[in-house]
């Protein structure tokens, strides 16, 4: 959240980070039982909207000289997961949350 706010500020957009974080928290509470559209995309072997969300923060940050390393890592990780699912690695429909963990 701080990265996105820093990028916005550098672009002349004022965002109160505390208010934005509170709004994100409220959305998380209200949608806690939902399956996000991005997860649905991954599970259904479709491209996600990661470039338009986190990737956009990275691009905007680069354009104004504000680094957004966390958004960049998330973008790369989701893109790698997309590539894995789109290439058909055999686990397309098994979500990470449903996979057993080793003890």
Q: How is this structure best described in words?
A:
The chain has one domain: N-(1-d-carboxylethyl)-l-norvaline Dehydrogenase, domain 2. The chain is an all-alpha fold and 103 residues long. The N and C termini lie far apart (33 Å). The chain has 5 helices and no strands. The chain has helices at 2-10, 17-30, 37-43, 54-64, 69-86.
Unreliable spans are 95-103
Query: Helix coverage percent of residues?
Result: 55-70%
Largest sheet: none
Q: How many domains is the backbone divided into?
A: 1
User: What's the pLDDT, averaged over the residues?
Assistant: 88
| Number of discrete helical segments | 5
Order of helices and strands: HHHHH
Highest-level CATH class: Mainly Alpha
Query: Which shape, going by the Cα principal axes?
Result: flat
Radius of gyration: 16 Å
CATH superfamily: N-(1-d-carboxylethyl)-l-norvaline Dehydrogenase, domain 2
Distance between the termini: 33 Å
- Which topology does CATH recognise? N-(1-d-carboxylethyl)-l-norvaline Dehydrogenase, domain 2
What's this model, at a glance?
This protein is mainly α and 103 residues long. Helices cover 57% and strands 0% of the residues.
Question: What is the topological layout?
Answer:
Blueprint: H1 2-10, H2 17-30, H3 37-43, H4 54-64, H5 69-86
């Amino acid at each position: 959240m701080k990265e996105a706010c820093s990028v916005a500020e550098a672009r002349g957009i004022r965002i109160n980070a505390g208010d934005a974080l509170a709004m994100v928290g409220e959305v998380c509470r209200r949608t806690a039982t939902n399956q996000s559209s991005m997860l649905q995309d991954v599970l259904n072997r479709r491209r996600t909207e990661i470039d338009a969300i986190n990737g956009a923060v990275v691009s905007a940050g680069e354009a104004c000289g504000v680094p957004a390393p966390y958004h960049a890592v998330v973008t790369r990780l989701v893109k790698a997961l997309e590539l894995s699912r789109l290439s058909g690695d055999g686990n397309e429909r098994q979500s990470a949350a449903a996979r057993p963990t080793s003890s």
